[in-house]
């Protein structure tokens, strides 16, 4: 019997020794490898990434509507280490197997096989994201292939229910690249728009794996915007119809509250769908309302008049004699309608706004001089950023007003030779609407109205406002029965960026607010390079009328002009 006892003891002794060796191998020899595996498993299982905050629109009643939220989507990922360990034969056989897998996946998900192949070849790699938001057909096809080391898992990603609406404001998210992932891991990062500007707040804090301890993630903060989804949708629809009707290169629209600076709508064409951002050109993602400048044309005339009146150099009744042209520094400028109507003769400053006379704006500028004129245009905020909470905002360009020639100041008086962002321009005209106070534009609902500066007196603002109202009544197209609307057109030639002078292309703008007696809204519509270079009165003015009427009805704004003069 002794030999049996010795055999049993020997068997369990060997088994125990093997168990100790296995424990030593796992805990000591392969400790780091299994730690990495555990960490990546937690990433795959969704334990580490934080819930990204929701972005909301706000309607006229203060109700919040989700504009960006989180949704479960199928995600395709690979474990390259598992693939490499499955093919322990020659390197050539491994390479062939990886190539076959890459080609198979490429044919299903549409990503170049070379990109997939490179990811599958990474040494000791536990996780590689291959594709997001798979379709049902893709999922079914991949599952039938039973590919080694290839997995599909439902994961949370961003969903934009309004699709192209407000895409430039919202932006989108995409996975961190290799450089970024060293800092943030397998996270989604904001690209463009609010997603980028507030990425830190929206992202929250990811959980961490430290040894065998897991720290839970902390959800990101929600962001509530001032954008009214009803106004935003209507504004973008009108803009899109306008761009299509005139075969324009693009356009922008902004709607705001002039008294507060609150942005109610902001959109541009062409736009994009954040849900499928990879299908669009990178240039489409920039927001032209804040990230691009243009020459405003005759809209600048009302700012020239405001400067001259506030400096007490002119009044709305001040007269000058129009010959149709003005010459300085060897260059001659003409009125836009010189060929059609000839010189206007004696005109008041109010007439200059009514008929948009270039030489009248030049006269006003010369009455106040270059220094006063330049100081006012800078005070209006045209040469600086507004500091709105959106990424990439650029400054306007007023360089011609710094030690410029007479001809530079002359052209600037009617909006050529200087450039502005649409957002800065709507802010400057809003100062006329609200009695001379320049407000900081804001797009986050929790912000409070902020005064930047008083740029003109209330008396000046009232006089210029009356001049703008007169122009609307005289030109008829923007008149809304029962309401006083103050507005101004702008048709500006596009500079020849490859050389000197200007092209034959134009940018049409129209900016206006109402009711003039107590402004509730201000609208800027801009149309880029409409085919045939028509005047603004033919293009953006009718579109402005349509949008203004819609806003009046939507906001239930009472009439202020029940006994119109005309």
Key descriptive features of the protein:
alpha+beta; five-stranded antiparallel β-sheet; 20 helices; 20 strands; 566 residues; five-stranded mixed β-sheet
Structural summary, described in words:
Strands 1, 2, 3, 4 and 9 form a 5-stranded mixed sheet that branches. Strands 11-10-20-19-18 form a 5-stranded antiparallel sheet, with helices on both faces. Helix 15 crosses helix 19. The protein has 566 residues and is α+β, with helices and mostly antiparallel strands. The protein has helices at residues 2-29, 31-44, 80-86, 91-109, 113-120, 136-145, 167-170, 178-184, 193-197, 199-203, 229-245, 288-291, 300-310, 338-341, 349-355, 358-379, 406-413, 422-433, 458-475, 540-555; strands spanning 55-58, 64-78, 128-131, 150-159, 172-175, 188-191, 208-210, 213-215, 223-224, 250-256, 263-269, 319-322, 325-328, 331-334, 345-348, 437-439, 451-454, 486-495, 502-514, 521-528. The protein is built from 20 helices and 20 strands. Helices cover 40% and strands 21% of the residues.
Residue runs with pLDDT of under 50 for 5 or more positions: 26-47
Q: Which descriptor suits the 3D outline? A: elongated
- Count of individual beta strands: 20
Gyration radius, rounded: 32 Å
Largest sheet: 5 strands, mixed
What is the number of helices? 20
Beta-strand residue percentage: 15-25%
Structural class designation:
alpha+beta
The percentage helix is 25-40%
Overall pLDDT confidence: 89
Distance between the termini: 124 Å
Note the topology.
Elements: H1 2-29, H2 31-44, E1 55-58, E2 64-78, H3 80-86, H4 91-109, H5 113-120, E3 128-131, H6 136-145, E4 150-159, H7 167-170, E5 172-175, H8 178-184, E6 188-191, H9 193-197, H10 199-203, E7 208-210, E8 213-215, E9 223-224, H11 229-245, E10 250-256, E11 263-269, H12 288-291, H13 300-310, E12 319-322, E13 325-328, E14 331-334, H14 338-341, E15 345-348, H15 349-355, H16 358-379, H17 406-413, H18 422-433, E16 437-439, E17 451-454, H19 458-475, E18 486-495, E19 502-514, E20 521-528, H20 540-555
Parallel strand pairs: 1-9
Antiparallel strand pairs: 1-2, 2-3, 2-4, 5-6, 7-8, 10-11, 10-20, 12-15, 13-14, 16-17, 18-19, 19-20
Helix pairs in contact: 4-5, 11-20, 13-16, 13-19, 15-19, 16-17
């Amino acid at each position: 019997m002794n030999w049996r006892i010795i055999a049993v003891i020997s068997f369990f002794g060997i088994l125990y020794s093997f168990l100790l060796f296995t424990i030593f191998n796992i805990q000591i020899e392969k400790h780091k490898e299994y730690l990495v595996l555990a960490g990546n498993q937690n990433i795959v299982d969704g334990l580490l990434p934080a819930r990204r905050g929701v972005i909301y629109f706000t309607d006229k009643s203060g109700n919040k509507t989700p504009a960006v939220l989180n949704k479960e989507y199928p995600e395709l990922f690979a474990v390259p280490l598992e693939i490499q360990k499955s093919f322990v034969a020659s390197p050539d056989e491994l390479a062939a197997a990886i190539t076959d897998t890459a080609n198979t996946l490429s044919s299903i998900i549409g990503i170049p096989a070379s990109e997939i192949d490179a990811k599958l070849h990474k040494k000791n790699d536990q996780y590689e994201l291959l594709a997001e938001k798979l379709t049902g057909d893709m999922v079914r096809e991949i599952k039938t292939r039973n590919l080694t080391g290839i997995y599909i898992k439902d994961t949370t990603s961003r969903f934009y229910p309004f699709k192209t609406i407000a895409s430039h404001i919202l932006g989108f998210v995409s996975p961190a690249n290799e450089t970024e992932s060293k800092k943030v891991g397998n996270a989604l990062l904001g690209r463009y728009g609010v997603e980028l500007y507030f990425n830190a707040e929206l992202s929250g804090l990811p959980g961490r794996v430290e040894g065998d301890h897991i720290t839970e993630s902390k959800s990101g903060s929600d962001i509530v915007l001032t954008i009214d989804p009803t106004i935003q949708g209507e504004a973008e629809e009108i803009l899109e119809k306008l761009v299509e009707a005139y075969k324009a290169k693009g356009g922008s629209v902004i709607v705001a509250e002039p008294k507060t600076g609150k942005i109610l709508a902001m959109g541009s064409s062409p736009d994009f769908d954040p849900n499928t951002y990879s299908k669009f050109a990178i240039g489409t993602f920039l927001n032209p309302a804040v990230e691009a400048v243009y020459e405003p044309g005759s809209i600048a005339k009302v700012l020239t008049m405001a400067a001259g009146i506030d400096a007490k150099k002119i009044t709305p009744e001040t007269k000058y004699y129009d010959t149709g042209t003005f010459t300085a520094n060897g260059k001659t400028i003409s009125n836009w309608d010189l060929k059609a109507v000839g010189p206007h003769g004696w005109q008041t400053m109010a007439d200059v706004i009514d008929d948009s006379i270039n030489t009248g704006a030049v006269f006003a500028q010369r009455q106040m001089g270059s220094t006063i004129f330049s100081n006012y245009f800078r005070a209006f905020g045209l040469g600086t950023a507004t500091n709105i909470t959106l990424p990439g905002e650029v400054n306007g360009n007023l360089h011609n007003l710094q030690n410029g020639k007479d001809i530079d100041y002359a052209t600037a008086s009617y909006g050529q030779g200087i450039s502005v962002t649409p957002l800065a321009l709507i802010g400057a005209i809003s100062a006329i609407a609200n009695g001379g106070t320049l407000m900081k534009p804001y797009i986050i609902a929790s912000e409070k109205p902020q005064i930047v500066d008083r740029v003109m007196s209330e008396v000046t603002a009232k006089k210029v406002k009356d001049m703008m109202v007169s122009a609307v009544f005289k030109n008829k197209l923007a008149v809304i029965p029962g309401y006083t609307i103050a507005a101004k057109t702008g048709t500006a030639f596009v500079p020849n960026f490859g050389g000197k002078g200007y092209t034959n292309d134009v940018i049409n703008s129209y900016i206006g607010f109402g009711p003039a007696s107590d402004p509730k809204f201000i609208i800027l519509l801009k149309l880029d390079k409409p085919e045939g270079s028509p005047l603004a009165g033919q293009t953006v003015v009718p579109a402005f009328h349509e949008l203004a009427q819609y806003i009046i009805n939507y906001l239930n704004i009472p009439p202020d002009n029940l006994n119109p003069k005309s």
